[in-house]
Design brief:
Layout: H1 3-16, H2 18-39, H3 45-70, H4 82-101, H5 109-113, H6 116-128, H7 130-155, H8 170-180, H9 184-201, H10 204-225, H11 230-257, H12 266-282, E1 295-297, H13 299-302, E2 312-314, H14 318-348, H15 354-376, H16 383-406
Antiparallel strand pairs: 1-2
Helix pairs in contact: 2-3, 2-7, 3-6, 3-16, 4-14, 6-7, 6-16, 8-9, 8-10, 8-15, 9-10, 10-11, 10-15, 12-14, 14-15, 14-16, 15-16
Length: 407
């Protein structure tokens, strides 16, 4: 076959399978994540990093398709996502420098690799368009949430498991009916679902996320009714939220002090957080530029009887890691990215169509939950969860970008 005809055939195949290429990695990754509570401890590095590899694959294929069609490479929305690219380069550059110059085996390479989830999420959103993305993501999140909840319940009913961080994915889908129709029936349905998740998880983080999610849902109901009057919004939210918050706090208080839920290892976490803050103060501007190790020597905390596998542990806060090892430069880039997401969301939500609002709020709430999770857990150290977090941040960024273009 002549080379010209081969290129034509490739263009045809790639154009037909273009949307399949966007959806397939998300589908396979959702299946792996859904089964993670069952296979997590015994899975190999190949399975752990499979969503990362698939995100890289879709980005490469995106460039191949673009070149086949136009003989030009795409810029991968560099202007829209320049903050993410800079943060990604800091992670990757510092990690390779650490490996090649200092010979370190434990670096920030994993934290950098999971950022491919952001770029895949952005391409996923812009490649499929708003309607198709909603039609794919809602079923995927629901089908992923069911095995996660079952797995958490089976492995340790009421006490949570090491992979409880995936619970944040289940809570926004519970509130989706309320986002679609703000009425009492939808609220009660969503509220019951959240109570079930709280009981199954039995983790302090889950209680915090559930409370924040309910407050967000009530706030959005009032915000969309009268977004110009902040005092009215806060008053309406307070009337309903205060009794709910007091009730949830009473439940948590009883369970916590009766030993039915985890203590969260507060002393252990405070030791790690204090160590990270001291690292930040040593070089507040740019830290070590991610050239040092993301782990802490725990000998001073646990003593000389410490088992070797617990000698070096991560910070248990991805946000603190950003500031401790990347300084104000890396931390500022991340904060700027999040501020941009929030600003665009609240500017767009009041004017967009009703059919897009519910999905937009679901994505925003998912990102808010992610911010809570990564503030008190080392999520970016876990490739399968880290790439998922960045995927939703990229997807929300993509939706904001598309809605702004429609104005």
């Amino acid at each position: 076959m002549p080379i010209r005809n081969w290129f034509k055939a490739m263009r045809l195949v790639l154009s037909i399978s273009n949307r399949v290429l966007y959806i397939l990695p998300a589908l396979i990754s959702a299946m792996i994540i859904g089964m993670w509570p069952f296979i997590g401890r015994s899975s190999t590095n190949i399975i752990k990093y499979l969503p990362v590899f698939m995100a890289i694959m879709i980005i490469v294929m995106y460039q191949v398709v673009s070149y086949m069609k136009t003989n030009q490479l795409k810029t991968l929305y560099l202007r829209q996502n320049w903050i993410a690219y800079l943060l990604f380069l800091m992670y990757i550059g510092g990690s390779f420098f650490s490996m090649l110059v200092f010979g370190r085996q434990i670096t920030f390479l994993s934290q950098g690799m999971v950022m491919f989830g952001f770029f895949y999420g952005f391409l996923f959103g812009t490649g499929l368009g708003l309607e198709k993305v909603k039609g794919v993501i809602i079923p995927l999140v629901f089908l992923t949430s069911v095995p996660i909840l079952i797995g958490v319940a089976i492995q340790d009913w009421g006490h949570g498991i090491p992979h409880h961080e995936f619970i944040y994915l289940c809570i926004p889908i519970c509130l989706y009916p309320y986002f679609k129709k703000f009425n009492l029936k939808s609220f009660l349905f969503s509220f019951i679902g959240i109570l079930i998740i709280m009981y199954i998880s039995g983790k302090n983080t889950t209680y915090i996320i559930c409370l924040i999610s309910l407050l967000f849902a009530l706030f959005m109901r009032s915000y969309l009714r009268d977004y110009r009057s902040l005092i009215k919004i806060l008053f309406r939210v307070a009337i309903i939220a205060i009794p709910i918050a007091m009730g949830l706090f009473s439940i948590w208080y009883e369970l916590y002090f009766s030993g039915q839920i985890s203590t969260g290892n507060l002393d252990f976490r405070l030791f790690l957080y204090a160590d990270a803050i001291l690292k930040f103060l040593e070089s507040p501007l740019y830290g070590s530029f991610f050239t040092d190790s993301p782990t802490h020597n725990m000998a001073d905390y646990f003593g000389r009887f410490l088992q070797e596998k617990y000698l070096y542990l991560p910070t248990h806060s991805d946000i603190l890691d950003l500031f401790a090892h990347g300084g104000l430069l890396a931390g500022g880039l991340f904060i700027a990215m999040i501020v941009k997401l929030f600003r665009n969301f609240f500017a767009l939500i009041v004017s967009e169509s009703i059919e897009h609002r519910a999905f937009h709020m679901l994505l925003m709430l998912t990102v808010m939950n992610i911010l809570i999770i990564i503030s008190i857990n080392p999520i970016f150290n876990m490739p399968i969860n880290g790439v998922l977090c960045w995927f939703f941040i990229g997807l929300l960024s993509s939706m904001n970008y598309q809605l702004r273009r429609q104005l």
